[in-house]
Automatic annotation (TrEMBL):
PROSITE patterns: AA_TRNA_LIGASE_II. CDD domains: HisRS-like_core (cd00773), HisRS_anticodon (cd00859). GO terms for molecular function: ATP binding; histidine-tRNA ligase activity. The gene is hisS. The lineage of its organism: Bacteria, Pseudomonadati, Pseudomonadota, Gammaproteobacteria, Oceanospirillales. This is Histidine--tRNA ligase.
Length: 429
């Protein structure tokens, strides 16, 4: 009876044929955050459940329905991180990174949410995020947006994503607006769906985010938070828009953009695409000036975003934007044509690697006929095969056979091989 254990639903393996795309994306992002002076932080995938409940908010979908929470052997309630911001604040506070200093941090890694899996939505997914601490002006909000915009440009995605922007104002302004909104929704109670009725008291702003088309006209006419901002938040938002205008970044102000996590204040934004169906948000973030204090630190302004790596890879793949050479192929595949030669090839390859660190060479292992070894050489994707047989051993030479180009086979003395390969393959020493 076959009884194969399978992966958990919504949690995917990343296979070798896909890893080139991931490495390409991650490489571009790593280079970019370094260019902006952000330093990497890595935090554990498990945290105390209270961290997420207190930061993301008790009455959010994530905390109410989506967390992987369990008691460990000690009975402590632990949760697989559903996002990176809370952990980042916890780690920065715990390690004194926020004391009288500013920080620009970035992170990447798996996140976990028990959502209904579909294209672009998984239970284990990956985020790359950046977070900046200790800076309160709109210049840093602009910087995180400009960084993301530069990534789109680098990846060829600029025409395929739209920036949506809103301000949630101060918590006082939001509380006052909340009352106005609740009374508007009370007047339109008949139109509210079940989910919205549930949220009416607990989290009425999230009703604005509803995708229910029956509610769309009522939501469109709802009072707008942007019309009820405190003056400091209004000025902050206007200055941010001014910087984005000057930088030539186009955006759409979406007064209904409220985000699904409770820690935001002032600026919120999302980069969306229409090319991925319903899971079209590829990057999202904003300012969360109250969170550090809420988690036990001194009041510290903060802003950041996280990108969904799977969604971005899907987008790059759909639009065929991953360059052919994203993952470099092998340069050479080395074959020992008989038993004596097979013994020499491993060591010969080592001397070539010593002489030329950029050379990508694989040695045939496991024997087999010359024909089957040549088949493997071909399948490896290498540009050329290096052949060592009785004749070559006797002459202290190696034969170079091109696998994909119409070039003459040649036999080279071993002591010249490294230098010749560098020249032939046009690679650096
Ligand atoms: P978020 O909007 O919950 O924000 O997630 C950010 C991004 O992660 C989403 O826009 C999406 O691309 C991706 N994502 C979320 N859930 C899934 C899923 N189930 N499957 C695939 N991709 C997903 C945050 O997590 C905040 N921590 C962002 C932030 C950082 N705000 C400030 N700093």
């Amino acid at each position: 009876m076959s009884n194969k254990i399978q992966a958990i639903r919504g949690m995917n393996d990343l296979l070798p044929e896909q890893s080139a795309q991931w490495q390409y994306f991650e490489g571009q992002m790593r280079q970019l955050v370094q260019r902006y002076g952000y330093a990497e932080i890595r935090t554990p995938v498990l945290e105390q459940t209270a961290l997420f409940a207190r930061s993301i908010g008790e009455v959010t979908d994530i905390v109410e329905k989506e967390m992987y929470t369990f008691a460990d052997r000690n009975g402590d309630s632990l949760t697989l991180r559903p996002e990176g911001t809370a952990s980042c604040v916890r780690a920065a506070l715990e390690n004194g990174l926020l004391h009288n200093q500013t920080q620009r941090l970035w992170y990447q890694g798996p996140m976990f949410r028990y959502e209904r899996p579909q294209k672009g939505r998984y239970r284990q997914f990956h985020q790359v995020g950046i977070e900046a601490y200790g800076l309160e002006g709109p210049d840093i909000d602009a910087e995180v947006i400009l960084l993301s915009a530069r990534l789109w440009k680098q990846l060829g995605l600029r025409e395929h994503v739209t920036l949506e922007l809103n301000s949630l104002g101060s918590s006082d302004a939001r509380a006052a607006y909340r009352d106005i909104l609740v009374s508007y929704f009370e007047d339109h109670r008949a139109v509210l769906d079940e989910d919205s009725l549930r949220r009416l008291q607990s989290n009425p702003l999230r009703i604005l985010d509803s995708k229910n088309s029956d509610m769309a006209p009522m939501l469109k006419a709802a009072p707008k938070l942007l019309d009820h901002l405190d003056s400091a938040s209004r000025e902050h938002f206007e200055r941010l828009c001014g910087i984005l205008d000057a930088a030539g970044i186009s955006y759409v102000i979406n007064p209904r953009l409220v985000r699904g996590l409770d820690y935001y204040s002032r600026t919120v934004f999302e980069w969306t695409t229409t090319a991925l169906g319903s899971q079209g948000t590829v990057c999202a973030g904003g300012r969360y000036d109250g969170l550090v204090e809420q988690l036990g630190g001194k009041p510290t302004p903060a802003v950041g975003f996280a990108m969904g790596v799977e969604r971005l890879i899907l987008l790059l793949d759909t639009l065929a934007l991953v360059p052919e050479d994203a993952c470099p192929r092998l340069d050479a595949y080395m074959i020992g044509m008989d038993e004596a030669a097979s013994k020499s090839v491993l060591l010969l390859a080592e001397t070539l690697r010593d002489a030329c660190p950029t050379l990508r060479i694989q040695v045939h292992c496991g024997g087999g006929s010359f024909k089957s070894q040549m088949k493997k050489a071909d399948k490896s994707g290498a540009r050329l095969a290096l052949l060592l047989g009785e004749d070559e051993l006797a002459r202290n030479a190696v034969t170079v056979k091109w696998l994909r180009e119409d070039r003459d086979q040649q036999t080279l003395p071993r002591q010249e091989l490294a230098a010749e390969l560098i020249e032939l393959l046009d690679i650096s020493a």
